Amino acid sequence: MRRPIVFMYSGQGAQYFQMGKELFENNAVFHENLERCARVVDPLIGASLIAEIYREKKSVPFNSTRFTHPANVALAYCLTQVLASEGVRPDVLLGYSLGEYIAAIVAGAVSLEDALANVTRQALVLEEQTVPGGMLAVLGPTSLIKSRPDLFGSTTLACHNFDNHFVVTGYPQDLKRIEQALSDDEVSNQILPITHGFHSAIIEPAQQSLIKLMQGLFSDTTLPTWSAMTAKRVDQFNPEHMWNVIRQPVRFFDVIKQVEAEYGPTYVDVGPAGTLTTFTKYALGAEVGKRAHMTINQFGRDIKSMDTLIKTLRAAGY
């Protein structure tokens, strides 16, 4: 009997320019669905989402929230549809931050069009009502935060991904100072391509507007869906829960252990960079990590990556 299959959806920071370009140019399912997404988003942002994703200026970070919010949702939805066209569908969903909005679409709790319009409007509200913020990933234990209050005192723990990986949110000037200090101490770290203070009080001025935007948006789910914010199954999507998804810390390390204990599944990272595949392997160990697979990544060769995944899943009985 085959294992259940879990589709994992990542959040902000996984995106990059030209993500999925080979599929957009060569896969009709991906192409048609991305155009469907763009028809919703373009009038709201006053620009072409597709042109923004595939523009050539790659030396500049892909970090403008009005583009990256809908782009992440659209990209993951398109990858989901490509997998469906090959007969690969999820038994369980796991959403990480913004990825919970994608999971809500796939779970049937909200339509693609309504969700895309909503996350795009959310991005515009965040730009209007909050000050700039940022996020810094650190390859080290969370105990660093308590042991180095001189560095991390002005930040908020945003994500705990596995024993030696966490993310903090703060103001850009503080993150630059921390980045330099950690680099001087030879602690690996990276400022993420994010310009808002997700998972911290920095975005709280937008709380009431965002909750209001989501009123009446969600219905019941048709698939078991897990939240990396609560580390539990989502009983029902609602505006308060979805606000907390971007305000409260991400507990990926906790949720992935719960999902493994519940299902012992095959994991598929349906995102642009394979980030959650990496987190899963480190969180659960090398042996379990063999069951974790990515769809595409930032190194290109999307068609080969997708073909390899499909062959691997078919060999496992999917």
Task: Give a written overview of the molecule.
The chain is α/β, with parallel strands linked by helices and 318 residues long. The chain has 2 domains: 5-129 and 199-315, Malonyl-Coenzyme A Acyl Carrier Protein, domain 2 (3-Layer(aba) Sandwich), CATH 3.40.366; 134-191, Alpha-Beta Plaits (2-Layer Sandwich). The chain contains 15 helices and 10 strands. The protein has helices spanning 21-26, 28-45, 49-53, 65-85, 99-106, 112-129, 143-147, 149-152, 172-184, 207-213, 239-247, 252-263, 275-284, 286-289, 302-315; strands spanning 5-9, 92-95, 134-138, 156-162, 165-170, 189-191, 225-227, 232-233, 266-269, 292-294. The protein has a 6-stranded mixed beta sheet with strand order 8-7-2-1-9-10, sandwiched between helices. Helix 12 packs across helix 13. The longest helix is centred in the N-terminal third of the chain and has 21 residues, at 65-85. It is globular, with a radius of gyration of 18 Å.
